[in-house]
């Protein structure tokens, strides 16, 4: 059970990075899509930035908590936050790009 908690603590920045962009769906100000034709209207710049901010804030909180059972050293919390957020959100974008890629017929 302890290992499960440690893994959830490790993955928390990724979880928050993935959960944050839908919260800015109704952002009333500037919020252009990243690439309308390839990704659609729902993958937006503000959503991506908000996801990165959520990941960095989560790792900053983990650094501040200084939990002794954590699997990583959170002294480089900014780097960890940016990398985990960019990895999670970049993975989502690449998944969407692969789904939108034109399919060739066999033969």
TrEMBL record:
The chain crosses the membrane at residues 6-24, 45-64. It comes from Hydrocarboniphaga effusa AP103. This is Uncharacterized protein. Keywords: Membrane, Transmembrane, Transmembrane helix.
